[in-house]
Design goal:
Keywords: Monooxygenase, Oxidoreductase
Number of helices: 10
Pfam families: FAD_binding_3
Number of strands: 13
CATH class of the largest domain: Alpha Beta
Organism: Acorus gramineus (Dwarf sweet flag)
GO molecular function, one term: FAD binding
Structural class: alpha/beta
Shape: globular
Order of helices and strands: EHEHHEEEEHEEEEHHEHEEHHH
Family: Belongs to the 3-hydroxybenzoate 6-hydroxylase family.
Length: about 375
């Protein structure tokens, strides 16, 4: 028989670690189970807007962050937890529910054959979440676009101003974000290529494809950034999202099991809200658990309250992010070309984008209900 934990968090990414820190702040111990052998730092940069900083303030780590770097954020969150609060190399295989003394207990079995039993299971295990599958949530789907992301390193300084720069082309959208005076995060989103082309995984081949194909026609300054890429940071993947209505009417919780972050609401990155909403999830979930824990059905009531508080907001952001990406890349399919550019330049930027951007003004509140 495996060990027993009150709260188990599956996944040690931003959502998982932030949830663990938030729970610690309200006096609830949790165990984070991460499938990798160390903290995952792929992706390089993460955009943190006002709503994310409010969430970080709520869990008490905002003042410890200066650089918006995924690795730094993960390390900062991990440092807030006890040394035994994260267990690496724990790849979840299955979940089984049992009723013991009229209460549900969940047995988590891992690929190495080990098991852990828990009262509460929070799936923060990404787009292809095992916990979301167990709940019955419909799988995330491809958006019709893909993205290459990486960090460029300039040992003598890059000379860019500390601001976001965007480059647009037909079916393409690229950007540069300074991280430090020597590091730049860059990305390019594009209409998906044939599957055989997107099977490329070698960093140098991906970099070459960006320079010779995807970013062809972009300004020389952007090409220079791509040439300075640290090959260990480059990734290329399809942009996935979950249909908004799946969150509104789907099974996002069951008993004392739920999901957060990308496991709940995978979205395209076009509003920069993936990491931000994951941090909001952590605060809202911990607050609901803190306020309901003393009642007889406390955990189940807390999970239900969390889902009801989050699903409408994140469903709206998923839809807004998809619309934003579609419009800014000039449309997809027969809407592309002249029609797509007209919609983008004369309708979307003038009337729609400012409204969508207001999602970053949201305040998820404090950890307590004071």
């Amino acid at each position: 028989m495996g060990s027993f934990e009150e709260v188990v968090i599956v996944g040690g990414g931003i959502a998982g670690l932030a949830t663990a820190v938030a729970l610690k702040r309200v006096g609830v111990r949790s165990l984070v189970l991460e499938r990798s052998h160390e903290l995952r730092a792929t992706g390089g940069s993460i955009g943190l807007f006002a709503n994310a900083w409010r969430a970080l303030e709520a869990i008490g780590v905002a003042d410890k962050l200066r650089v918006v770097h995924r690795k730094v954020l993960l390390e900062t969150l991990a440092e807030e937890l006890p040394s035994d609060a994260i267990r690496f190399s724990s790849k979840l295989d299955s979940i089984k529910e049992e009723i013991i003394d009229r209460s549900s207990v969940y047995t988590l079995r891992f690929e190495d054959g080990s098991t852990i039993r828990a009262k509460v299971v929070i799936g923060c295990d990404g787009v292809h979440s095992v916990v979301a599958q167990w709940l019955g949530l419909t799988a995330a789907v491809r958006s019709g676009r893909s993205a290459v992301r990486a960090i460029a390193v300039f040992p003598n300084g890059h000379g860019f101003e500390n601001e976001f720069q965007q480059f647009l082309g037909d079916g393409k959208r690229a950007g540069i974000v300074p991280l430090t005076d020597k590091e730049l995060y860059w990305a390019i989103a594009h209409t998906s290529l044939p599957p055989e082309m997107e099977m490329v995984r070698d960093p140098e081949s991906i970099q070459k494809l960006v320079i010779e194909n995807l970013a062809k026609g972009f300004p020389q300054e952007y090409m220079d950034v791509v040439r300075h890429t640290d090959p260990t940071t480059i990734t290329w993947a399809p942009l996935m999202f979950r249909y908004p209505w799946d969150l509104l009417i789907g099974r996002t919780w069951r008993g004392c099991v739920t999901v957060a972050g990308d496991a709940m609401h995978p979205m395209t990155p076009d509003l920069g809200q993936g990491g931000c909403t994951a941090l909001e999830d952590a605060v809202v979930l911990a607050r609901n658990i803190a306020s309901s824990r003393s009642s007889s059905d406390g955990f189940e009531k807390a999970i239900e309250g969390y889902v009801k508080e989050r699903r409408v907001r994140v469903a709206g952001i998923i839809a807004g992010a998809y619309l934003s990406g579609w419009a800014q890349q000039g449309g997809i399919g027969w809407w592309g070309g002249v029609v797509g550019r007209f919609v983008r330049d004369h309708i979307f930027y003038r009337f729609v984008f400012k409204r969508l951007a207001k999602v970053s003004e949201f305040d998820c509140g404090r950890l307590t209900c004071e």
